[in-house]
Amino acid sequence: MQKRYTYYDSGHWRVKRGEQEIRHGFVDLLAKYENLHMTPEQIVDQAEMLRSYRNLFEGYSPDEIKQIISEWKKLKKESEKREVFFNKIDGLIEAATRRGGLV
């Protein structure tokens, strides 16, 4: 396990160097890296896997694929609701036509 250099205090990531406390943009990036709990080699492997995934799925990331599937499911559910509604309307029209109520 890698040694952690950053710590979170008063709403900011910080690094202590001797008695000096550093709080710059690069410290946030270092903290993000440390929070991954991955070695540089593992990060490279993940990046290569993601590139392969994007090649398989026309450039879409796993998160984008999940979003597309979620939207598709919503549309499908709405479509099914519309189909039920129109089937009811068709039934009402058919019943009214049989009774001579619609010409």
Q: Could you characterize the architecture of this molecule?
A:
This protein is α+β, with helices and mostly antiparallel strands. The chain is built from 3 helices and 3 strands, in the order βββααα. The protein has a 3-stranded antiparallel sheet, covered by helices on one side. β2 and β3 (20-22) form a beta hairpin. 2% of the residues are buried. The model has no long low-confidence stretch (mean pLDDT 84).
Task: Tell me the layout of helices and strands.
Elements: E1 6-9, E2 12-17, E3 20-22, H1 25-36, H2 40-56, H3 62-98
Antiparallel strand pairs: 1-2, 2-3
Q: What descriptors fit this protein?
A:
single chain, 103 residues, alpha+beta, three-stranded antiparallel β-sheet, 3 strands, 64% helix, elongated
Structural class: alpha+beta
Strand order of the largest sheet: 1-2-3
- Cα gyration radius (Å): 29 Å
Spatial shape: elongated
Number of strands: 3
Average pLDDT over all residues: 84
Secondary structure: helix percent: 55-70%
How much of the polypeptide forms β-strand, as a percent range? 5-15%
Low-confidence stretches: none
Number of helix segments?
3
Oligomer: single chain
Largest sheet: 3 strands, antiparallel
Terminal CA distance reads 80 Å
